Amino acid sequence: MSEFFQNSGLFFALLGAAVATLMAGIGSAIGVGKAGVAASGVLAEDPSLFGKVLIFQLLPATQGIYGLLVGILILSNVGLIGGVKEVTALQGLLYFAASLPIAFCGLYSAIYQSKCAVAGIGTVAKKPDQFGKAILMPAMVETYAILALLISMLAIIGIAGM
Amino acid sequence: MQQDYTYAVARIRFKETQLLSDSDIDALLSSKDTEAVMRLLRDKGWGDNSDLSAEQLLSAEEEKLWAFVDECVSERSDLEFLRVPNDFHNLKVAVKCITRDIKPDGLFIYNAVCDPETVYECVKNRSYKDLPEFLMDVAQEAMTALLQTSDGQLCDIIIDKACMDRVYTLGKQSDNEIIRLYCELFVVCADIKTAVRCAKTGKKPEFIRRAIAECDTLDKDKLSAAAYEGYDAVLSYISLTEYRSAVDAINTSMSAFEKWCDDYLTAVMKPQKWEPFTIGPIVAYIIARQNEIKAVRMILSAKLNGLSEETIKERLRDMYV
Question: Is it the case that residue A32 has pLDDT exceeding 70?
Answer without folding.
Answer: yes
